[in-house]
Amino acid sequence: MTFKSPQNVQFYNITATMDKHRLSSGNIRSLLQDKFGNIWIGNYSSGVEHVLKVLRLNIRFTYTKDDEKNIITI
């Protein structure tokens, strides 16, 4: 975790839309930045999203209730 003074922090407003390059849900429950600078977002009802820093690409891993192919634990 990196701590910065408030003067040096940048905030971004990312909204949930149907656009494939935006968040699928505004119900964020967890947020993680990995050692490569990629962002992992855990949503309450729509799964996990992986935002690739280098490619500026958003990949969604969705959860569908009663789907036998869901990953429950890793």
What tags apply to this protein structure?
Two-component regulator propeller domain-containing protein; 74 residues; Reg_prop; 0% helix; mainly beta
What can you see in these coordinates?
It holds the Pfam family Reg_prop. InterPro entries: Reg_prop, WD40/YVTN_repeat-like_dom_sf. It is a single chain. A hairpin with a 4-residue loop joins strand 3 and strand 4 (57-61). The model has no long low-confidence stretch (mean pLDDT 68). This protein starts with 27 loop residues before the first strand and ends in a 13-residue tail after the last strand. It contains no helices and 4 strands. It has a domain at 24-67 and 70-74. Strands 1-2-3-4 form a 4-stranded antiparallel beta sheet, with no helix packed on it. It is mainly β.
Q: Total strand count, please? A: 4
- Morphology: elongated
Strand portion: 25-35%
Q: What can be said about the biggest beta sheet?
A: 4 strands, antiparallel
Summarize the helix and strand pattern as letters. EEEE
State Rg.
14 Å
Poorly predicted spans: none
Provide the residue-averaged pLDDT.
68
Work out the helicity level: under 10%
Q: So how many helices?
A: 0
Structural class estimated from helices and strands: mainly beta
What is the subunit organization of this protein? single chain
- Across the major sheet, the strand order is 1-2-3-4
Span of the ends, CA to CA: 24 Å
